[in-house]
Amino acid sequence: MRKLKNFPFAKVLVLGLAKSGTAVANLLNRNGVEVVANDLKATEDDENVQTLRSQGVSVVVGEHPLSLIEDVDAIIKNPGIPYENVLIDSAVKQDIPVLTEIELIPYFGINQIVGITGSNGKTTTTTLIYEMFKKADAPVSLAGNIGHVASEVAEQMDDKQTMIAELSSFQLLGIDTFKPKVAVLLNLFEAHLDYHHTLEHYQNAKANIFKNQTEHDYLVYNADDQRIVNLIKDADAIRVPFSRKGGITNGTYCDEEAIYFRGEKVIDLASVVLVGEHNLENILAAISVAKLEGISNQVIETVLTTFTGVTHRLQFVKEVNGRKFYNDSKATNILATTKALSAFNQSIILLAGGLDRGNDFDELIPYMSNVKALVLFGETSPKLRKVGEASGIENIELVDTMNEAVQKAYQLSNKEDVVLLSPACASWDQYKTFEERGNMFMESVHKL
C-alpha cells in the first residue's frame, strides 16, 4: 500500500461524507493527517459517521459551523458540493486551498495516468480504453467518476500500472498539481451551468485536465469540436487530434470504410458493433490512446468487435414483442439525448425528464423527427411537453413513475419501434443517481 509523500497539509477538513468523502477521510487518517469530517445531511447514527469516529476522526453532522475552518490547512470537498457552500465560500475568501480528492494522486507518486473528460461519452471512452489495456495484458486500474474513488485506487497501485480515470468538471475544478500523462478531451457542450454558472467557467474547469501537462505529455482532442480547438490553443502537451470528418493526418480519423491512425488502417468500420455517431467519436479517442500506448491493432479490433456499450449508456435491455428497449439513463443533458436520438432510424418512443436546471430544451427539436411519442416525468415535464408540441408530436403523456412510463411507452409502441429512456436531465428530482433511474427502467421493462 502506497503512502502519501510530501503532503503539504497537516490538518484537513473533508466536506461531504458520500462515497469519495468517506474514502478520503479514511485515507488521510491512515497517512497520519489530522482529519475533521463534516456533512450537513448525515446523522449521528450513520454507519460512516460511527466508523470514522471509532478510528479517531472528528465528525460534525447536521450543520456547517464556520469554526471548522479556523485552523485547517485545506479543504477536500465532495465534487458535487457547490462553491456557494458557506464553508467553501469562507475558505476561498481566506485563501484556504479547496481541493477534490484527485489532487491526492500526485502525492502517491502516480504518474502514469490517462485522464478522460468531456460533456458526454466519458464513461464509454474510459471503459473502451480500460478494456484495450486489459486485453493487451497491460497492468491497469480503473478510477474516477466511473465509480472508483481515484485516490483510493492510487493507494493500491504498483509502479507498473496505468490509471485510466474518468474525470468530471467538478473534480477537475479542485486540482493544483494533478496531471495525466495522456489527457483526453471529448467534446464541450453547455452542461452543469447550475454549478458553474457560465459556459466559460465550465470550459475552464475542463481545461484543468491539461493545465499542468508539459511537452512530454499527450493531449488527445476532438478536432471536430471548435470549442475544444479554441480551448487547447495554448496547451503545452503534444497534441493528438481525432476526427470522424477527416481532414487530419497526425491523429485518428475515419472514412466510409475504415478507421486510421496516422495513415495506418486500424479496423474496418463494418466490424465495429457499438452504434451511433457519438460512439464513433468515443472509439476514435480510445484508439488514439491505445496507439500512443503501443497497443496492437489486433487487440483494438478484438475489443471493438465485442464491446456493445456500458450500463445506462444506450444499453440494449430487451426486446418485447418486437419493441427494442434501450436504457440511456446516463444522458443527463441535451447533447447526450440528441446523440441517442441520432443513433436510430426506427420510430422512437422517447422517455425523458428530470431535474430542472433552468435551461429550455429547444435544441432537441431538430432531432425529434423519428420520435412518434413522448412519455415525460419529473420537474422538466412541462418544458419538454412544449418541445414535443413544437415538434408536431401528437402523443405526449405525463406520468409520475418510471413503471408508469414504461407501461405507457409500450402501449404507444408498435413492432419494430425503439423505446428509449434518454432523459436529457439529471435524476436528482426523483432518484439519487442516474444509475438508480436506469435500474428502475430496466426492472420495469422486465416486468412487461
TrEMBL record:
Major subcellular site: cytoplasm
Compartmental location: Cytoplasm
GO cellular component terms listed in the entry, alphabetical order: cytoplasm
Domain Mur ligase C-terminal: 312-425
Short name of one Pfam family: Mur_ligase_M
HAMAP family: MurD (MF_00639)
Binding-site residues, ATP: 118-124
Involved pathway(s): Cell wall biogenesis; peptidoglycan biosynthesis
E.C. designation(s): 6.3.2.9
Signal peptide span: 1-25
Reactions accelerated catalytically: UDP-N-acetyl-alpha-D-muramoyl-L-alanine + D-glutamate + ATP = UDP-N-acetyl-alpha-D-muramoyl-L-alanyl-D-glutamate + ADP + phosphate + H(+)
Known role: Cell wall formation. Catalyzes the addition of glutamate to the nucleotide precursor UDP-N-acetylmuramoyl-L-alanine (UMA).
Gene this chain is encoded by: murD
Family matches, as InterPro entries: Mur-like_cat_sf, Mur_ligase_C, Mur_ligase_C_dom_sf, Mur_ligase_cen, MurD
Protein's name according to its UniProt entry: UDP-N-acetylmuramoylalanine--D-glutamate ligase
Family as reported in the entry's similarity comment: Belongs to the MurCDEF family.
Sorted UniProt keywords: ATP-binding, Cell cycle, Cell division, Cell shape, Cell wall biogenesis/degradation, Cytoplasm, Ligase, Nucleotide-binding, Peptidoglycan synthesis, Signal
Top EC class, one word: ligase
Highest taxon of source: Bacteria
GO process annotations (BP): cell division; cell wall organization; peptidoglycan biosynthetic process; regulation of cell shape
